[in-house]
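Recap quiz, item 2
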Amino acid sequence: MTATIVFQQAINGVVLGSLYVLVALGLTLIYGVLVQINFAHADFVTLGAFAAYFFMHLVAASYILSIGVAFLVGAALGWLINASIFTPLRHKGNELLPLIATIGVSVMMQNLMLAWFGPIPYAFETQYSGQVIRFAGIFVSWQNVIIIAVSSLTIALLYAFMKFTFLGKALRAVSQDRETAGLMGINPNRLIMLTFVIASALAGMGGAMLAPVLVLTPFAGTSVIVKAFAIVIIGGFGNVEGTILAGLIVGLIESFTTQFLDPGLIDIVVFALLLLMLAIRPTGLVSERREENV
Amino acid sequence: MIKVLRALFVGVAAIGLLATSPAAQAQDKTIKIGALFPMSGPGSYFGAQDKQGVELALEQLNKAGVNGYKFVVQYEDSSCGPLPATQAAKRLLEQFKPDVIIGEECSDATLAVMPVIEQAKVPLLNAGSSSIKVTEPGNPWTFRIMPNEVMQGVNLADNAYKRINARTAVLLFENTNAGIGNAQVFKENFTKQGGKVLAEIGFGRDVNDFTAIATRVAGLGQVDVIPTYTLEGQGLKITQALAQAGVTKGGGGNAIQIGTIWLPFGFEQKAGKAALGYIRIVQFDPTETRDLVRDFNAAFKAKYSADPTHLNAHAYDQIMLIADVVKRGGKDAQSIRDGLAATKNWPGVTGSVEFDKTNQNTKMDTVHYMETKPDMSWTSLKWN
């Protein structure tokens, strides 16, 4: 086993992990603020992927621009669905209703996309897909360089937003104690909407980044969402730092399991880690009290 | 009042008589065909293309009917998986009560529905599942017109060793009955001839990024051929990842990807330059000069404004073979089963059909080889 292959697999793992992080961050944000699992998140990812695909192909725009469009489409969809479905249900006082509604939204979106886009897999080739950088036996496509760069930038901006801006601090206040935050003049409903919009925008953007990597069909998002849930649990539900760390770890586990064991064992290894974490460290990799998350 | 009632009775009786007259009966005579196709999930491209082939056949057959019979098809989404396929089969059997069923595409799904359909004593005509278990040891109600994994695998291994001069191979396959079975058949026959298998790499259908697998293959040294068994979506990503890793011809390497019947036409255009030199078995060769194939190509293009794929073709053949059985006297499940079993050298657009005692089509003219050219078109290799 050469060091080159180990290094190559490490790069592969970081690329994959960065994609997982983008998807998982939205899940963890929503859970951190609303204590709600969004089962439709995968479909926001898929719609973002299709938005980028069609924008790039119909408008003949650059791939980078299409990532921005997917971000905006995700944000708009998040606003629309939260305003029209989740918020009214949340006001009924039963926490189960919005949770079940996320399943309904997921099934509805999948079938709508199946009707619109058809079942045949799309080949999402960007101008960077076929361009490969090779040095000292290592290969990295420009597509993967973009994935790492955009993911890192997005994660850094999100982190800065949460830590240093008034809105970010307000979000954290709502996640700690929604009622007290309300008494302090913060409008929790507006911040819940903001959370949904940010999480959905991240999902859309994640879709645009994933689309050239995964198989683009109306069910594309569902293939990564199970891993994203595992990452959120391993990292600590609602914990942004933990989610980033867990995403990268899962990406690396996938690469090195493929190299040293067998790709058929990836899920066994990842979910064994998940069970181990639940058993010995149920608060996740980065331990915090839940109310301090986000 | 009595007169009115009597007139009413006579009128109703007359309508009843008319309804049971031979002319009305002829109109009501239908052969009910249940179709178990994957319409959702990663195999849904099968269902979409199968349906096109079926609809074309129905359009042609129902213009005049066959022996006074019209054909109706009820589609059910079997999703390429054992559980949804079984549920879909039960729905078909209980609600539609078909005379014959066609499908599924994925071997795991077909194997799951076979006992259910056998119990109902309805013939199942399969065109897309390659697992040997579909016809071995044999099920009196299941027929397969597609060459099974052994027929394809032995032939592919033989051609890899003798025509491509391959001596080393890496097997890539999805962890399903068909994926594992195809890979094992290739391995057995390739090693029997003197070839060496450097690695067997199986993966689940949820794997998205194949860069790690391509990296592993790149680290194995000189690889001559890479037999690959997976659905179209993952197949695209594997082909591109192998090219990026510089393993295959499409990426400047020496290895040639090869495969059996899994991928539809159009795969090369989607995979792009990465697919250069890919050699694979397809079930249908549209460049064949037989009138039957020419007519099918023309009719398909007229209806859909596109060239047919092998999936379109084998679905078309399934319906046309059933129609042939009806022409030979088939009228219900039992007689259609018997008619299928008695089929001799039936000419379809994918090739000819004649079943052995396990109900497997024995004809090798359904195995066509194609190779991807530098302009991403393909050429028929005429190896069989």
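The longest strand of chain A covers residues 132-135.
Chain A has eleven helices and two strands.
End of item.
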